[in-house]
Design brief:
CATH class: Alpha Beta
Helix content: 40-55%
Structural class: alpha/beta
Number of helices: 6
Amino acid sequence: MDDQLAQLSVVLGTACRQHQLAIATAESCTGGWVAQVITHTAGSSAWFERGFVTYSNQAKIDMLGVRLATLEAYGAVSLETAGEMAAGALCHSAAQISLAITGVAGPTGGSPDKPVGTVCFAWCMKDHAVQTEQCEFIGDRESIRRQAVIHALQGLLSRIGGVN
């Protein structure tokens, strides 16, 4: 684990403890990397409730309750799907905040509408509306995935409110 990711883990853990929040993650293209970063810090069981790795569409449906109609209308890589993933992670856990990532990490799988590097994010807190964002990252598969992990965790921190 590099220093930047390790530091994000520590800062996120501190913020979650201060705000008494537990996290659930729903990951597709990052394959559990966000969960790995969060649990890098000792004691993370106090703020990490669970992680879902839902790489296939069927896993998104079965584990998170993503609607087939959403996948058919917008695709797996969409703000709509990311939003349903985040809401489903919260619904199927005891967490108070969740994040979701779905994207095209490459080197194949891109399209003119969703080129390699397209990643959709969602964050959801109990009793709040889901917030979504789409980014276009540049680089190889590893770089795109790493950028997505960092963006997701920084987005989570900004929604928690950082450390008081």
